[in-house]
């Protein structure tokens, strides 16, 4: 059902996003024409001049680009939700043996632009233990871990925007450990704002998010929970100190 809903939403959203570029170009052309009319406003018929004043053309010129930008951001957010729903509904069909460290390294490579933003650089600390290969659905597990690391980056960016780091450097620590009974642990922590007590019990609920409007879908952690707990029969929990840190603990059988 989720896959079907995502597919039906995706078609009109793709249509909107595909036409927004044309709409933006047409709007710029029309505004250029309006500017030409402004330059020759002294020669305009009274009827045209009265209409310009009636519709508040200056305000429209200023507000129309903002309106188009708002529509584009809204459509992109819907598109992100659709993609998350598709991941939520998709299950890998093949279990293979993989090195969990290779998966983590590939995720960090993909996220390098976010981690090494010229205005905001995040230090990544990797502490890997010697582990055996793990039998898993690699694409799904990669998505689960990526969601958690992305969430950590978001938390650090919010704290940075609030000027709460001081001399402390934003950082993410990723540690792996061999556990008893052929299990392994993955520990992902950040020194962001942490999670408040009132939100603690909701973090794995679908569509729950504390991020600003248009910045979060509320599906990332719920997808991670589904992949780790339901698909891999593992465990996931969060340990958090409000205003200081958050650590996600992933435990899966190898």
How would you portray this structure in words?
α1 runs antiparallel to α3 and α4 (100-110) packs across α6. This protein has two domains: 2-89; 96-253, Histidine kinase-like ATPase, C-terminal domain (Heat Shock Protein 90, 2-Layer Sandwich), CATH 3.30.565. It has 254 residues and is α+β, with helices and mostly antiparallel strands. The strands form three sheets. A five-stranded mixed sheet has the order 4-6-7-9-8, with helices on one face. The chain has helices at residues 2-39, 46-54, 57-89, 100-110, 112-115, 138-161, 197-200, 220-231; strands spanning 96-98, 116-117, 120-121, 123-127, 134-136, 171-179, 183-190, 235-241, 245-253.
* Global shape: elongated
Provide the β-strand percentage band. Answer: 15-25%
Count of all domains: 2
- For the CA atoms, what is the radius of gyration? 24 Å
For CATH, the homologous superfamily of the largest domain is named as: Histidine kinase-like ATPase, C-terminal domain
Uncertain segments are: none
Q: What is the element string, with H for helices and E for strands? A: HHHEHHEEEEHEEHHEE
Helical proportion? 40-55%
């Amino acid at each position: 059902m989720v896959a079907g809903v995502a597919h039906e939403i995706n078609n009109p959203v793709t249509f909107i996003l595909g036409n927004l570029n044309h709409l933006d170009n047409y709007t710029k052309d029309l505004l250029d024409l309006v500017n030409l009319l402004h330059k020759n406003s002294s020669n305009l018929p009274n009827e045209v001049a009265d209409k310009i004043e009636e519709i508040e053309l200056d305000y429209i010129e200023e507000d129309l680009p903002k309106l188009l930008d708002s529509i584009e951001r809204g459509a992109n957010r819907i598109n992100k939700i659709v993609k998350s729903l598709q991941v939520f509904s998709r299950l890998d069909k093949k279990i293979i043996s993989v090195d969990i460290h290779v998966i983590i390294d590939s995720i960090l490579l993909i996220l390098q632009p976010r981690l090494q933003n010229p205005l905001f650089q995040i230090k990544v600390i990797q502490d890997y233990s010697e582990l055996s290969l793990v039998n898993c659905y690699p694409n799904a597990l990669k998505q689960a871990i990526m969601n958690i690391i992305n969430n950590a980056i978001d938390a650090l960016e919010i704290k940075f925007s609030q000027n709460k780091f001081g001399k402390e450097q934003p950082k993410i620590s990723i540690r792996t450990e061999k556990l008893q009974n052929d299990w392994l642990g993955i520990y992902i922590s950040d020194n962001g704002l942490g999670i408040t007590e009132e939100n603690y019990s909701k973090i794995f609920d679908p569509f729950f998010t504390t991020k600003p409007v248009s910045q979060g879908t509320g599906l990332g952690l719920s997808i991670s929970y589904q992949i780790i707990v339901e698909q891999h029969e593992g465990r996931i929990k969060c340990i958090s100190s409000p205003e200081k840190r958050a650590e996600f603990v992933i435990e899966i059988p190898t």
